[in-house]
Design a protein that fits this description.
This protein is an all-alpha fold and 136 residues long. The protein has 7 helices and no strands. The chain has helices at 16-24, 28-41, 46-56, 62-79, 84-94, 101-115, 117-130. The longest helix is centred in the middle third of the chain and has 18 residues, at 62-79. It starts with 15 loop residues before the first helix and ends in a 6-residue tail after the last helix.
Length: 136
């Protein structure tokens, strides 16, 4: 198996309808781009995006699941609001899931950072204080 070079590109703006249409047509690459495009450039309803990504956490494709978790973190960053109890509960359940757990854990960190910046800042200070190798 040869080495594959991945090139970063910003996905175009998209809507939840674009995501669902791509998934319905089995166009995974287009669906993944649309998921990110909707989260980053979605204009308007954060709750519609939240519901889309919560639903996609149960998708059979692990790439879609992992990206849905990541996109929930993006929604927290872009809109600074969400139904935190539902989202955090869903992401916590996925933390031990192979291939998705890392994305879920990162999304939880993003949610804390962007919805509760003071708490995240204090947690970071406490963590740095408890790690003596960072004092140097």
């Amino acid at each position: 198996m040869g080495h594959v070079h991945h090139v970063f590109h910003n996905p175009p703006p998209a809507t939840p309808a674009d995501v669902l249409a791509a998934l319905d047509h089995g166009e995974l690459s287009r669906a993944l781009d649309a998921m990110v495009g909707a989260a980053l450039y979605g204009d308007g309803d954060w709750s519609e995006l939240q519901e889309l990504y919560l639903g996609l956490l149960d998708h059979e494709d692990r790439q879609v699941k992992a990206l849905a978790a990541t996109c929930l973190g993006h929604v927290a960053r872009v809109y600074r609001q969400m139904d935190e109890a539902r989202v955090v509960g869903a992401l916590r359940r996925l933390r031990s899931t192979p291939y998705v757990g890392g994305a879920a854990a990162t999304a939880l960190e993003d949610i804390e950072l962007f919805l509760h910046p003071r708490r995240a800042r204090w947690r970071g200070r406490l963590w740095r204080g408890l790690r003596p190798w960072t004092w140097i």
